[in-house]
Write a structure and sequence with these properties.
alpha/beta; 11 strands; 2 domains; elongated; Rossmann fold; Alpha-Beta Plaits
Length: 314
């Protein structure tokens, strides 16, 4: 059974935290929904298997998890969530009808952050869950800041690495292509030496903003790869589509018409060289092969005179 959002109050704010209730008893689900529907977007799973499947597709902000369920019990569900890089940061709260020290120790050992008794009042439940939601939002904000490049506002290298790993696994499961575009500003050292580092920073910011504007799909990513290099991750994109996007990016940067008198490229403006690679990932393959393919393509673009796109299958 696929988890579905439960009916919520019509007066709820738009940006509500996502709460997943995992329980095999319809009565318990209804009671918990009544407690939290005013503050949260509530989803429900009636088995541990459904809960794990839901979390692979959509990440809830917090999980209320029953301990005793047929099939996978709550402890095993929690352990599996914590072993998975995608889901390990989701706070898990066990909702239990018992008050047993050994049970709480087992739950905390499995990775739960708290226990709530089913007999607790609605106000107590809301207060404890709201506290945990606040901590989760603060943690998410700090993690988001740690994944942003301070100069350009794009994703940083760490975020790129995580995104590539996640999309590699997802495309391997679905058998769909994954493409990468590596971008290098042409003769940027000469730009810095002639115009100064402050102008160089401004140039990087303009280029970054322009690159970001060219992507409208939520699952694409543009990141600063390092120095004057950028990288784009394009899931579910074959080589021809990625090559077309790379040509559009090259043209968009030309249209900025940022003066670069010392460039060796005709036109006297800032230009970029781009290397493209695409592959249908296999679980046994190494995603580094895709990066290597894009890097080799970029090398070809530079060797051919820069300010152009080259493609290569990874």
């Amino acid at each position: 059974m696929t988890p579905e959002p439960l009916e919520a109050s019509p007066a709820m704010p738009i940006a509500r935290p996502r709460l997943l209730i995992v329980d095999d008893q319809p009565l318990n689900i209804r009671l918990l929904n009544q407690v939290f529907q005013a503050e949260c977007e509530v989803f429900v799973a009636t088995s541990g298997e459904d809960a794990l499947a839901f979390c692979q597709d959509q990440l809830p902000d917090l999980i209320l998890l029953d301990v005793v369920m047929p099939g996978l019990d709550g402890y095993e569900v929690c352990r599996r969530l914590k072993r998975n890089a995608r889901t390990r940061e989701i706070p898990v709260v066990f909702v239990t009808s018992q008050s047993d020290t050994a049970e709480e120790e087992d739950g905390l050992a499995a990775g739960a952050v708290d226990f709530i008794a089913k007999s607790a009042s609605a106000n107590v439940m809301r207060a404890r869950v709201n506290t945990l939601m606040t901590l989760k939002r603060q943690t998410d904000l700090l993690q988001s800041m740690a994944r942003i490049d301070g100069l350009t506002g794009l994703a940083n290298r760490r975020h790129f690495d995580e995104k590539l790993e996640a999309e590699w696994r997802r495309c391997a499961r679905s058998g769909t292509p994954l493409a990468l575009i590596l971008i290098d500003l042409d003769h940027f050292k000469l730009f810095n030496d002639y115009y100064g580092h402050q102008a160089g920073d401004s140039c990087l910011q303009q280029v970054a903003a322009c690159l970001k504007r060219q992507f409208t799909r939520s699952h694409d990513l543009v990141a600063r790869y390092g120095g004057e290099e950028f990288v784009c991750v394009l899931p579910e994109t074959a080589l021809a589509g990625a090559e077309a996007k790379a040509h559009a990016l090259e043209g968009a940067i030309r249209e900025l018409k940022i003066a670069h008198e010392k460039t060796g490229v005709a036109g006297g403006i800032v230009t970029i060289s781009l290397g493209v690679a695409a592959v249908v990932p296999a679980p046994s393959d190494d995603r580094a092969s895709l990066i290597l393919g894009a890097d080799r393509s970029l090398y070809l673009a530079k060797g051919a005179g820069r300010a152009q796109v080259k493609t290569l299958h990874a």
